[in-house]
Design goal:
- This protein has about 120 residues and is mainly alpha-helical.
- The protein is built from four helices and three strands, in the order H-E-E-E-H-H-H.
- The protein has a three-stranded antiparallel β-sheet, covered by helices on one side.
């Protein structure tokens, strides 16, 4: 799989997950001593344990609602376009690091995100 393919595969995966999830934005709210919830004005999304870690998890889930997924997908598609036009952006330059050019950093960071998405445990 080429780097552009990796980026587009991740973008499509995120796009599918975002469009099939409950519409956002999502909000975190507490439910007393029972834990933390993530919901919309019209739907329940998730519940986490009653702890500071549970609250942090709920905050994270709410922050990463489908609207954010759609934007991440768009960024990955844009990075794939960069790679199509400038394939050298994907290769390491010195010490296996991208060059100091902003486009190189954007492409390498996007590839790291894409690879994490493509090898993760989500469908």
């Amino acid at each position: 799989m080429t780097p552009a393919d990796e980026l587009r595969t991740a973008a499509e995966k995120i796009r599918i997950l975002a469009t099939t999830a409950t519409d956002g934005p999502w909000h975190q709210s507490g439910i007393g001593d029972q834990g933390w919830t993530v919901d919309t004005p019209h739907a329940f999304v998730a519940e986490t344990e009653d702890s500071e870690k549970g609250r942090a998890d709920a905050d994270w889930i709410a922050a990463m609602h489908p609207g954010v997924g759609d934007k991440i997908s768009g960024l990955l598609e844009a990075a794939a376009g960069f790679v199509d036009d400038y394939p050298d952006l994907t290769r390491p330059h010195i010490d296996d690091e991208p060059c100091s050019d902003h486009a190189c950093h954007i492409v390498h960071a996007s590839l790291a995100v894409a690879r994490a998405i493509n090898t993760g445990s989500q469908p």
